[in-house]
Amino acid sequence: MKKQIATNAAPKAVGPYSQAVAAGDFLFASGQIPLDPATGEIVEGGIEAQAERVFLNLKAVLNEAGLDFSDVVSATVYLADINDFATVNTIYSTHFTGEILPARCAFQVAALPKQAKLEISCVAYRG
């Protein structure tokens, strides 16, 4: 069984995709960039502000599905500049805590939508 997950607390999908899809016990969250859901624009500030916005957006999608960061089993971090890795990693570690952390990969990409500095997608498990 599949179910689309959508919330106004995160940016609306800007293309033919869902904010997230629940499939059985798993939730597949689409990549979130640092868009303010109220304005649809990239948040002001550097990588720190953008990372915090991405995590707020992911949290909203997870919460809409009745989940939180402790349910995430895998995350993918896309960076416009790999030199931002350490800063993003520090912020990431404030949202993902606990004994079992998600599996993760992080890498630099050529470009992200709307000139965002980062995008994060994740998979969560409702155990």
From TrEMBL:
GO cellular component: cytosol
Record-linked InterPro entries: RidA, RidA_CS, RutC-like_sf, YjgF/YER057c/UK114
GO MF: deaminase activity
Domain of life, source organism: Bacteria
PROSITE patterns xrefs: UPF0076 (PS01094)
Pfam families in the cross-refs: Ribonuc_L-PSP
Similarity comment: Belongs to the RutC family.
Record-given protein name: Endoribonuclease L-PSP
Source organism phylogeny: Bacteria, Bacillati, Bacillota, Bacilli, Bacillales
